[in-house]
Write a structure and sequence with these properties.
The chain has 471 residues and is α/β, with parallel strands linked by helices. The protein is built from 17 helices and 23 strands. The protein binds flavin-adenine dinucleotide and nicotinamide-adenine-dinucleotide.
Amino acid sequence: MAERYDLCIIGAGSGGLSLAAGAAQMGAKVALIERGEMGGDCLNTGCVPSKALLAAGHAAQVFRSSAAFGIAPAEPQVDFAAVMAHVKGVIAAIAPNDSQERFEGFGVDVIRAPARFTGPSAVSAGDRTITAKRFVVATGSTAAIPPVPGLGEVDYLTNETLFELEQRPDHLMIIGAGPIGCEMAQAFRRLGSAVTLLDRGPILPNEDPDAAAVVREALEAEGIDIIENAGISGVHKDANGRITVMLAGQSQTLHVTGDKLLVAAGRRPNLDLGLDAAGIEHTPKGIKVDRRLRTSNRRVYAIGDCREGPQFTHAAGYESGVIVQNALLRLPAKVNYAALPRVVYTDPELAQVGLSRAEAERTLPGVAVHDWPFHENDRAQAERRTEGFARIVTSKGRIVGATFVGKNAGELLHPWTLAIGQKRKLRAMTGAIVAYPTLSEVGKRAASSAFTAALFGPSMQRAVRWLGRLP
Ligand SMILES: Cc1cc2nc3c(=O)[nH]c(=O)nc-3n(C[C@H](O)[C@H](O)[C@H](O)COP(=O)(O)OP(=O)(O)OC[C@H]3O[C@@H](n4cnc5c(N)ncnc54)[C@H](O)[C@@H]3O)c2cc1C
Ligand SMILES: NC(=O)c1ccc[n+]([C@@H]2O[C@H](COP(=O)([O-])OP(=O)(O)OC[C@H]3O[C@@H](n4cnc5c(N)ncnc54)[C@H](O)[C@@H]3O)[C@@H](O)[C@H]2O)c1
């Protein structure tokens, strides 16, 4: 006997949970189906453990970087088992927010089984058959494994197994220098591992290259061996369990050998749920959706990592709000990613919202770029964190992009997210009073630099001299 719901959500990760909480509290009858842990990637194998590990690395680094303040530096004693207990402790502290009990408290029917479409408007989960007015696929993604010869024969790590390590790697090799690769390279290096970071292109290829260069310099200064434009020709394991990554250079073949290998080479959407039976179109990049997040089956929506588009927890959360409007309130809401921020949580952080300089110059008229370096900021000087810059990009005076790289860049980004979302001009940001001495002054100074020539130029000087002659 089929059970009928207003909304059936498949996947209890960042997207599915936000939607289930909102929809149930607004009075909808909701089924939420989850085949694994409640909380999905973000809580269990993604954002939360990675940021907890980075925080441990940061704590270790404080010991090493005190000399500039007149305090003798020291090499910290890292108890790796205790570090990993800290990571698990952070997950455990957040887990109640995502728990089955909490969602049942909202009135959600939580079903713990793999879901599969059996037709255009029915899903099976365990021994249950679910029908619903609307379905939302929120099944997330899994680490993509590149077709490197020999990779299948070594016990490589992915984000699903990395946080289960019990011993610190002596030498961690990482394939992929995107956000996952860079963040984990720094965390493990600071915790005492040797780290080699390999990418077939440059590090952080999706970011402003000037900003990525600041991160590259910081990672290299901490002793991470970065090999860019690496053509990985094969991987093999020797009798002692050591793993060798072979790099085909132009004239010779280089080898890197270590005890652990992390694959962080992008993501593959989770699409193994009978999408074809429901007439839901998909590509290897994910489920195809329109701007209302509708799939080719008009009863079915898709959000988060499983659809084609940006893969962030806050993107999945934002999209759940769009679904509430479309599927529950029957309002034709569309997604707009123009002000979607993203942050790489290395130290220094790299934060971006809106268009990068290159994207704006390629696509918009009247583009101007306003930079301000951290070394011109008094707080950055006091804290000896002068690396980095702010870059504000405008088109005909309207703010269309902001790039921050430096200490706490992710926190500095948010006023700019608001400004872009509200289509503000640069003057809206220069008028605000910013507390002294804060790093936030960097953004304001970048914006103000646009007006320096007009404010302190010959015309203004002439005008002030003329006004000075008046009684
Ligand atoms: C190491 C790492 C670090 C990251 N750090 C950040 C960060 O700092 N900030 C950020 O914004 N993003 C970060 N991300 C990305 C973020 O984790 C994802 O964008 C986010 O989790 C996507 O949410 P989702 O709901 O689409 O998928 P998920 O959170 O993965 O949830 C999908 C759920 O669906 C379930 N599921 C799949 N198939 C089925 C099925 N057939 N039946 C039932 N259930 C199913 C899965 O078990 C899973 O629980 C990180 C990712 C990784 C891997
Ligand atoms: N701070 C954050 O918000 C955060 C952190 C981690 C992950 N994420 C999300 O998860 C997604 C996945 O992260 P990611 O770092 O795995 O992916 P990514 O796609 O951003 O980067 C993967 C990197 O691997 C490289 N690569 C791919 N195949 C390769 C090969 N055969 N040899 C060498 N290099 C190869 C690519 O050139 C690229 O630089 C991100 O795009 C992001 O959406 C976000």
